[in-house]
Amino acid sequence: MYSLPKALPHFLRTPVRTAMFAVLLAFGATTQAENTFPGIGRTATPQEIAAWNIDVRPDFAGLPVGQGSVNDGMVVWEAKCSSCHGVFGESNQTFSPLVGGTTAQDIETGHVQRLTDPAYPGRTTLMKVATLSTLWDYINRAMPWTNPKSLSANEVYAVVAYLLNLGGVVPDNFVLSNSTMAQAQNRLPNRNGMTTDHGLWPGKGMGNGGRADVAAKACMKDCVADVTVRSSLPDFARNAHGNLAEQNRTVGAQRGVDTSRPPAASLQQAQQQYAHATPNATGPVKTAIGAGLAASQGCVACHAVDAQVLGPAFRAIAKKHANRADIVPYLQEKIRSGGTGVWGSIPMPAQSLTGDEARAIADWIATGANP
Question: 67-91, pLDDT tens digit by residue?
Fold first, then answer.
């Protein structure tokens, strides 16, 4: 196996030469693997390596050549971003706002004052982000939500320019490019908000005096034999950014905890709060179970009762299919298998629910989605 040297030679320390060294190292490692395990795997091509080597560093190494204006960004934003993040970055019921909470003084100082204001309702993206490369890199790799990595480099520049313009960071006629990124970085409201005093990366070079982030002594006497490890959330922070259970992608079994209510004091109370659907439930109990499952299983991340979010309103679904004799089994199957095309191009992923759970939600929707 190959290991990286502790320090690269001087002639390899520039970003371009370092990248070339990494490619050569990867080539050597895969070549050795082929020799060690003949017939298994192959050497990655330069094109394959380039497809993965897309990260952008805070010093902007890795930025592709390109540019995008605020006006161009508005066009891309309204077509591919506004459905989730709002026309002006205010977002909607599902996502946290991107813009807001910053002032002209913050842009001058590089410190966002409202980050330390407990009365301010929430933290937006432009309040928190300290490096412009973070925005560019994330949008380039992960957006738009339904089709990641589909934006061209020029479109990413344009979208970032428009987002900065919404926050008053750059003027209306600004053109963001690989050569003007540093100029925009110097006006980022929280550009001086990053610190290494937490000691997460110890060492004198990180600016924390070599102090490590952990300073503890091993227990040597009267140690606790059994430890229960669990996560917790203080009550004052419980719903600061909205219900976490409504902010997850509805894919897979892992979902955020319901932060709209305090934690259950007992297993019995938890079972009462999140009752599983049963075939025998009727009347108000049946309605409560369907509504509760829609909330706890993440359906409300993309749907609301009366308003369109990412997907159609529950009552609009009921109205559209009201004349179907098989409306409940139809909706039950759609919930479990997902699909696209009925309400537009945004796909609904398949849901990991039991048949009874999906039927309870379908029943609740079909009967008017009453709370």
Answer: 999 999 999 999 999 888 988 888 8
